Amino acid sequence: MIVGRVPIGATSGPARDRSADHGRAPAPGDAWHDVRVIAAAGSWVRGRPRAVDAAVAVVVLAYTLPIQGAYVPAGLPAGTGVLVSVGLCAPWVVRRSFPLGVFGAVVAVFLVQFAIGMGPVPADVMLFLALYAVAVHRRRAVSVGAAAVLAACALLASARWGDGRVSELLTAAVSVVTVWMWGSMIGIRRAHVATLRERAAALERERDQRDRAAVEAERARIAREIHDIVSHSLSVVVVLARGASASVRTDPDRAVEALAAVEGTGRSALTEMRRMLGVLRDGEPGSPPPGTEAPQPGVAQLAQLVGDARTSGTPVMLTVDGTPGNLPAGTDLAVYRIVQEALTNARRHAGPDLTRVDVHVRIDDDTVRVDVVDDGRGPVDGPAGGHGLAGMRERVATHGGTLHTGAGPGGGFTVSATLPVGEDT
Predict the structure, then answer these.
(1) What is its EC number (predicted)?
(2) Of 133, 46, 121, 60, which Cα lies nearest the Cα of 90?
């Protein structure tokens, strides 16, 4: 077959317009046509291994049958040579599934051939091919044993049909060793490729698991953020609306002021919700470029948070010790959300006895501590077990911190969180 015909260095004859070849289907004899034919044939062969093995057996058998009669001793039944030839070639069809069984069957047929005195025929090459199959598909100890058996068969054949010269023995030994080494190298390469594929599949599964875990963690984070935003804002709106309803007739100015605060709280909640939804839409057409969204709230925004709480009627005192600018963004946001959730719980659960809420944030070199203490009636049967405290615990655990909640020594409710100060990851 002609693989390709590409003239090199042609200097005579008219110049060929190669632009005319663009889009033209390759014709037989062209280089690309031959390459494609070879590639298609290789793909067909790889996809039909059993058919290829059968073809090899048929070719060897077809070459052997016309001449096998010359090697059968006189006096043996007619067809003996045909049976031996078929017995040597037929097992090869299943050599990929049963390589050791094929080798044993071929050796057994050879021993029968040796015992009846039938001379060597071309089909005896299947002994070497069977050794190759064992070396490819079985472990080394098994293939070494098979090579030793084949070497013994070669010695028997040389002793009976050869002249016993050293060159014949060396030729037989080199042939056995060559076939065994060839099959062993192919087997090692295939095992290495299989190992690489298995490792790649394991890495793919591990990556998928990490991706799923990251998605779940991000969902949990967004759920906590939305809960904190909605819960805090709605609790403020409810308190302000109640105050406006109570004073709409007795003190209209105060009612108008409360309704304005309701509007401001709603707008602030909508802004934060849009920011959170912007995170979900990041990368979609029309979404704002990264870095253009509103910054995350932190310790610096606690004063505004406390001011909104005071507007809603919750008496809050804020104390911040340390420099907020030294906190990583994740820790800064966590401090804000912890205080926000603690104030929401105070408004929701402290009852009418609430007269004071103290918020103390202390920022050290390696930790930041948040304490929120109210003097309300406090829990009756222990700390509340709602989603707010659960989300607070998850948030603190995410940053490797500790959280303690419960009734204070003199009543009321206490939230104490300690977060390590480190770089965000």
Answers:
(1) 2.7.13.3
(2) 60
Report the C-alpha gap between 59 and 63 in whole angstroms: 6
* Surface-to-core class of residue 93, CB atoms within 10 Å of its CB (0-12 exposed, 13-18 middle, 19+ buried): middle
Q: How far apart are CA 290 and CA 166, in angstroms?
A: 81
DSSP string covering 263-308: HHHHHHHHHHHHHHHHHHTTTSTTPPPTT-SPPPP-GGGHHHHHHH
For β-strands 413-420 and 367-374, DSSP reports them as antiparallel
Can you give the pLDDT of all 425 residues of the chain as single tens digits?
333 443 434 444 444 444 444 445 555 556 666 667 776 766 776 778 888 889 999 999 999 999 988 888 888 887 899 999 999 999 999 998 999 999 999 999 999 999 998 888 999 999 999 999 999 999 999 999 999 999 999 888 887 877 767 777 888 889 999 999 999 999 999 899 989 999 999 998 898 888 888 777 767 777 777 776 676 666 677 776 777 777 767 777 777 777 777 777 777 776 666 666 655 555 444 444 444 445 678 898 899 888 888 877 788 999 999 887 778 878 888 898 899 888 888 877 766 677 889 999 999 888 999 999 988 766 555 444 456 677 788 888 878 899 998 887 777 889 999 999 875 54
Q: How far apart are the C-alpha atoms of 165 and 171, rounded to whole Å?
A: 10
372 touches 417 (CB < 8 A): no
DSSP string spanning 314-349?
--EEEEEES-GGGS-HHHHHHHHHHHHHHHHHHHHH
Name residue, tokens 């077990």. Answer: 385
CATH 3.30.565.10 fits 313-425, yes or no: yes
Residue 358, CA distances (Å) to 319, 336, 339, 355, 379 in order: 8, 15, 10, 10, 18
Tell me the C-alpha distance between 25 and 64, whole Å.
Answer: 43
Chain-centroid distance of CA 96 in Å reads: 32
For the chain, the structural domain boundaries read 27-162, 313-425
Ordered strands of the 367-374 beta sheet? 316-321, 357-363, 367-374, 413-420, 402-407
Residue 327 and residue 335 in contact, taking contact as beta carbons nearer than 8 Å: yes
Phi/psi for 14 (5° steps) reads -70, 150
What is the distance between the alpha carbons of residues 374 and 341, in angstroms, rounded to a whole number? 13
